[in-house]
Design brief:
Blueprint (H helix, E strand, L loop, with lengths): L2 H12 L5 H16 L12 H15 L4 H5 L1 E4 L2 E4 L9 H13 L7 E5 L5 H9 L4 E6 L2 H13 L4 E5 L14 E6 L4 E2 L8 H6 L6 E2 L6 H13 E10 L5 H10 L3 E7 L5 E7 L3
Helix pairs in contact: 1-2, 2-3, 5-6
Length: 281
Amino acid sequence: MTSTQARHQLAQQLQARYDEGEARSIARIVLEELLQLRIVPGDAMLSDHQKTVLATWTERLLEGEPVQYVVGNTHFYGLVFATDARALIPRPETEELVHWVLETHPVGSKRTVLDIGTGSGCIAVTLKKKRPDWALSAVDASEVALQLARENARRLQCAVQFIQQDILDEALWAALGRFDIILSNPPYIPVAERALMPEQVLRFEPEAALFVSDEDPLRFYRAIAQFARQALLPGGQLFYEINEFRAEEVAALLRDGGFEEIVLREDMQGKLRMCRAGRTR
């Protein structure tokens, strides 16, 4: 079986679950990973082992498992991160948040940075890779997520301090230290919106990293803002990835909390998905 035949066959099978364009995109990713090539020759022949792996991957994909978990990695800001069910799959919106931080703080700057709810470590590791002089720390309540984050830091040869800690536990805040930059992509989807989520997200990605209670959907934003008031150094900045439907609420929360220079920013889809606020005193 050639790579072209395998790709076409997989794309056809996947159309039982995905539309044609997405099925073709997934098939391309699978063949690239299977053959360990960024550009796959059409006449490349699959070995017996590769055919066996492809059959296993196909079965998992037809069950709805995300391709990033099936092949075990994904690309994020030009880097390759290991991915599995221990943490959320890194997403393009988060790449845009990282880019905003990097363009705000150019090469040559030295910063102490804390990533809250690091998951796979994609934010902290990318920032360290792009700004080697920065001191990066990252916290997460999930030890299994931190295991994955540490694996990614090792693979990408980045020195990041990872700490298991629930940011909602105020008693532990003082031990974290003080920072020039605090950023977070916290859980922000109310439980009431579960029905709006794709099936594969609900079945395979960790719920604790996605959902918050309907009674207090800004719970994490509020706690992180309170922490940041204590932990940000003068002139420091707080960056959030946000729920587009609650952008103004997050901005109001920050204004009420004494932050200044609050900026909401759209993603490439024109949705308000990021927020930056400053501590000037």
